[in-house]
Structures are given as C-alpha cells and as structure tokens.
UniProtKB/TrEMBL annotation:
Keywords: Oxidoreductase, Signal. HAMAP family: MsrA. One of its GO terms (molecular function) is peptide-methionine (S)-S-oxide reductase activity. This is Peptide methionine sulfoxide reductase A5. The lineage of its organism: Eukaryota, Viridiplantae, Streptophyta, Embryophyta, Tracheophyta. Belongs to the MsrA Met sulfoxide reductase family. The keyword Oxidoreductase applies. Residues 56-196 form the Peptide methionine sulphoxide reductase MsrA domain. Catalyzes the reduction of methionine sulfoxide (MetSO) to methionine in proteins. Plays a protective role against oxidative stress by restoring activity to proteins that have been inactivated by methionine oxidation. MSRA family specifically reduces the MetSO S-enantiomer. It comes from Escallonia herrerae.
C-alpha cells in the first residue's frame, strides 16, 4: 500500500503547460464582468438537500491528508479539517491541547454509507502505528473513529475487531469515541492540498475562502490535487480538465 508518496503525474505537466493559457482566459472573463462563483455547480438539485445529509468524523493523521482522502468520494458533499477528541475549549493549530487532527464529513447516506466510510478510514492509514501517523509524530495524529449513536458505535467496534483479526502481531490503536464537539480548523488548513495547486484554484475561478470551504467541487479537487482519489475518479477528473482546456472553457464547474 502506497501511503505517503506524492509523485508528479503526467497530467500535472500537461496542466502546467496550459497554465498560461488558462490565466489569460480567466483574465478575459474577469474583464467581461463574469462572476465565477455563480457558475460553480454544487450538489445536484434533488439529489442531496441538506435535510438528508449525515455527518461523520475521523482522525487518521494529518488533517490535510485526511480531508483529501474523504473529499473525493462520491456521496461526500463537504469536508472540514478540524480538531476533535479532546477537551481543550478553543484549540488552535499551534496549541491543540489533547485534541486530534480530524476531518468532518457531510455525506448523503443514499450514496455512501457509514460502513463504507469506515472501510476508507481503515484502508487510508496505518491504525497500528503508535503515537503518530506516517512521518508525523505526536498524539495529535492518533487514530479515532467518532460515532454518533449506538448503531455507529456498534459498526465501528465490529470493523475494529475485523481489523485486529487481520493484524495478529500488532495492536490496532484506534479509539472509538462519541463525538462531542468538532472544532473547525483555521482557514489556511482547509482544502490545504488544493490551495497548493494554483492551476486548479484558477480552474474553478479562484473561489473566495468561505465558498471554497463549502464547495463539493473543491472537496473533490482537494483529493485530486493530493492524488488520493480512487483511480477511476482521478482519471475522470483528468479527462474533464483536458476537455475544458481543449474547448476553451476556462472554468471547471463539476467533476
Ligand atoms: C447526531 O446525529 C443527529 C441526527 O441523527 C444530529 O442531530 C446530531 O447533531 C448529531 N450529533 C453530533 C454530535 O454530531
């Protein structure tokens, strides 16, 4: 399992070569008075209105990466990086106290289930690692499944047991906790992977921070930028981007 490497993909070099083109096209659009955010299509109407959405939260190492892992999944509508699992009242990045870096996920249970989110959780980090995750060392990177209600606690416990059966020689360190409060992290930690990719930011019209944080498209592209989408989806987004570039349509509206 390849967990922490980030290779430059061929698609990124293709994208880089179109950067100049895109910037000039976007500039032309600004001049034409088009306001980008209106053109971003969010959750398709009728599929996910907020009443049917559910919320889950997990801690599995760096929240930059965790947000990217879940943001790309079909059925995930929004992601937020934050702090949870501890008792410190106002955690901040440099003083998060006893909290763990976490991701909160709003999802449509008709498209993805809590059980499926658990599978992604287990397969996206090493739950046997003690006091850290990958290169990140410290209590803030511990592994936690946050649950809401007895059914989720049961599913979490069953999945942990199964995970423990798979790894006989070492202990699964993951904690299971009822979620109390999720504290959203500072803006600079939201969609962190996407923000490092100026080409992609440009492609969705340089959304203002608040829209970027709420955007489903940004959540997906955040996963794409980190190359953490499932391969099929990673390819689909490559295709969409190349399509847009070919057709001189500078703004990516959906993936
Ligand atoms: C638990 O789920 C219910 C809906 O089933 C929701 O109203 C409540 O806010 C959730 N609690 C937390 C802490 O997320």
């Amino acid at each position: 399992m390849k967990l922490f490497s980030r290779n430059a993909s061929p698609s990124h070099s293709i994208m880089a070569s179109f950067l100049v083109l895109t910037i000039s096209l976007a500039a032309a659009n600004i001049a034409g008075g088009i306001r980008f955010p209106d053109r971003i299509s969010e959750v398709p109407a009728g599929i996910s209105n907020s009443q049917q959405l559910r919320t889950a939260a997990f801690a599995l190492g760096s929240f930059w990466r965790s947000e990217a892992v879940f943001g790309c999944l079909d059925g995930v509508v929004r992601t937020t990086a934050g702090y949870a699992g501890g008792s410190k009242p106002n955690p901040e990045y440099r003083s998060l106290g006893d909290h763990a870096e976490s991701v909160q996920i709003e999802y449509d249970p008709r498209l993805i289930t809590f059980r499926q989110l658990l599978e992604v959780f287990w397969s996206s980090h090493d739950s046997r690692q003690v006091f850290g995750q990958g290169p990140d060392v410290g209590n803030q990177y511990r592994s936690i499944i946050f649950t809401n209600g007895t059914e989720e606690s049961r599913l979490a416990a069953v999945s942990k047991e199964r995970e423990q059966t798979r790894s006989k020689s070492s202990i699964v360190t993951t904690q299971i906790q009822q979620l109390r409060t999720f504290h959203p992290a500072e803006p600079e930690h939201q969609k962190f992977e996407l923000k490092r990719d100026h080409f992609l930011l440009q492609l969705i019209g340089n959304l203002p921070e608040e829209e970027l944080e709420k955007s489903s498209l940004a959540a997906k592209l955040n996963g794409y930028a980190a190359e953490l989408c499932p391969p099929r989806l990673q390819k689909r987004i490559d295709g969409k981007i190349n399509d847009i570039i070919r057709k001189d349509r500078p703004i990516l509206q959906e993936v």
